[in-house]
Amino acid sequence: MKWQPLTRGDRRAKEQLLAKMAVAVAATKFWGPSRGLGRAGLLLLRRLGARGVACSHPRRQQQQQFSSLDEKPQFPGASAEFIDKLEFIQPNVISGIPIYRVMDRQGQIINPSEDPELPQKEVLKFYKSMTLLNTMDRILYESQRQGRISFYMTNYGEEGTHVGSAAALDSTDLVFGQYREAGVLMYRDYPLELFMAQCYGNVSDPGKGRQMPVHYGCKERHFVTISSPLATQIPQAARGPGYGIMSIRVDGNDVFAVYNATKEARRRAVAENQPFLIEAMTYRIGHHSTSDDSSAYRSVDEVSYWDKQDHPISRLRHYLLNRGWWDEEQEKAWRKQSRKKVMEAFEQAERKLKPNPNLLFSDVYQEMPTQLRKQQEALARHLQTYGEHYPLDHFEK
Amino acid sequence: EAIQRRQVSHFTFKPDPECQEYGQTQKMNLFQSITSALDNSLAKDPTAVIFGEDVAFGGVFRCTVGLRDKYGKDRVFNTPLCEQGIVGFGIGIAVTGATAIAEIQFADYIFPAFDQIVNEAAKYRYRSGDLFNCGSLTIRSPWGCVGHGALYHSQSPEAFFAHCPGIKVVVPRSPFQAKGLLLSCIEDKNPCIFFEPKILYRAAVEQVPVESYYIPLSQAEVIQEGSDITLVAWGTQVHVIREVASMAQEKLGVSCEVIDLRTIIPWDVDTVCKSVIKTGRLLISHEAPLTGGFASEISSTVQEECFLNLEAPISRVCGYDTPFPHIFEPFYIPDKWKCYDALRKMINY
């Protein structure tokens, strides 16, 4: 191996190390091998003396520039300083991350420079998306109560997070929603007919009747099909920095705040090629699902506060009214119209057949395995003999 | 009318005759019998704790109602939404000697905890040379089809765990069985998974002893004796095959021996083989998909042990090899007609 010449840093390091070793050796000689260096240390010292402080290997030489005798921490990946005071970091310091908002609870812009100044048409689209979703929620929740669909989950209170964020994205941006984010699809003009089709699992359902209601998906609108399991590793804003992610906390019930934050995050994510975490604070006003009675674990007063005092739809309505972009007449007319649209879609969806039972077997893989085809054939034969015991009248032939 | 109202149930729950052996009984449904078992456990074992998502207010299926009020917030408490953490935490406290009773809200969500169960809990005793163990861990979880649960509220994942030496997997068919088996799991010195058929939580009602009692693990139960064919199932499916046995008797004059397996692993090979030696025919049925389902293990072992006794190939009537579908559930499940048809073919083999 070719010898590399010592750099000045190397030399100093070597001299300092040797000095320390010398002290240790002296100590050993005085106190005996059980103190100071001991035998191993003496061996090491001899080896060091012969070969210099590990400067024969090029990689070692690089390490030596981060000298072990420098008093900064040398841990790879740590960019901190040492501290000689014993102090624990308090968690609530981190959880006190401030919440960005644009409107107050009465829909007034707080800081005019933060007003996105969206045109009337766009703001009305926000409002109509949220209210149409709300209307659809009411009707479908009720339909479950009547035994018409098996299950439903409402979005009450969270509409602002869906619509504000969807509006700030490009329509082709791929969204991976969880089960309480239908407002994104609503904003992207997903037809009521298809929402209903999925809930009823009828022939028009693009999901082919496979999942429980509210598990929507739409390829054309770049909304990945929802699945029930909740991601358990998503950090909150408080932990975002810990993951090395740029983070912000926003008032999720302020549709403009959500919009602004998402718009900026998207711009920078694309420009800087790094992820951005937006924690949109909101409140789930409805029960978790039709299988839940949330009065078992929270107070009616708490729910009422959010419903009456801090609702994304109300706040936006105040903004619209203040601007003169909406009034009671239009509100009444829109309520009537949206209810009518929902009811029509609902009645039609209910009348349709369910998909052909053959669709039970497809899409497990892209191609159907032989064994599965045999199972499909076995079911077909079974139904020929025992078909009277199955609800075949409700399914497409 | 093309409107599909609530589905008719694919089974009828038949309560077992009241058991006189264990003292005073009370009418309980399945979730109440679970509460009763947990109540008994926490009363007698001061180290016993119950934890999981939403258990504090009583649980999404009411299995833990009243327990936090009775035993305090240090013994009945919620965890974050993190199955890996629920089981990991459970293992940890079990290692210190506490009786850890963890709940996974739906068996469909047990998979984030799979590594903890398979790589940690199951191997704890073995890898430490018996210096340490987490035997006082029990994991309870709602299991099986419920009429509209679809992919993520219907699964029966026992087969995944059957492949893992070191844990026990138990599935009760009724309130009386559930309490006795759960108490045995809690007492058992090995980590246990206890799957509760959620469709039975309210539908199954029986007289159940108020005090503790124990039904042994790894013992199958012959719930009906017969001579022509052995039917094996567990959980809800036991009620399906019971009905199939009646149909077979009535329509075909065939006498069925009906076995509830109860413990999936370690399973009771002797009881099943003894039965097949007598009848010469075996039909196994489960909701979980056919391929790699637990029926394949039973079938394989039985043909090894009882080959010359078999009059017909062993039949498995199971879910299809697909995820559990929503609207197609009536076609997917191994209902009594499919079981009956398979039985008929075996008799005529």
TrEMBL record, chain B:
Report which superkingdom the organism of origin falls in.
Eukaryota
Keywords (A to Z) from UniProt: Mitochondrion, Oxidoreductase, Transit peptide
Matches recorded under Pfam families: Transket_pyr, Transketolase_C
What's its catalytic activity?
Answer: N(6)-[(R)-lipoyl]-L-lysyl-[protein] + 3-methyl-2-oxobutanoate + H(+) = N(6)-[(R)-S(8)-2-methylpropanoyldihydrolipoyl]-L-lysyl-[protein] + CO2
The Gene Ontology CC terms held by the record are:
branched-chain alpha-ketoacid dehydrogenase complex; mitochondrial matrix; nucleolus; nucleoplasm
Mitochondrion is among the record's keywords: yes
Q: Tell me the GO BP annotations in alphabetical order.
A: branched-chain alpha-keto acid decarboxylation to branched-chain acyl-CoA; response to nutrient
Predominant subcellular localization, coarse grouping: mitochondrion
**Where is the protein found, in the record's own terms?**
Mitochondrion matrix
The protein's matches in InterPro entries, at most eight in alphabetical order, are given as: THDP-binding, Transketo_C/PFOR_II, Transketolase-like_Pyr-bd, Transketolase_C
Functional description taken from the UniProt entry? Together with BCKDHA forms the heterotetrameric E1 subunit of the mitochondrial branched-chain alpha-ketoacid dehydrogenase (BCKD) complex. The BCKD complex catalyzes the multi-step oxidative decarboxylation of alpha-ketoacids derived from the branched-chain amino-acids valine, leucine and isoleucine producing CO2 and acyl-CoA which is subsequently utilized to produce energy. The E1 subunit catalyzes the first step with the decarboxylation of the alpha-ketoacid forming an enzyme-product intermediate.
UniProt protein name: 2-oxoisovalerate dehydrogenase subunit beta, mitochondrial
Organism whose genome encodes this protein: Loxodonta africana (African elephant)
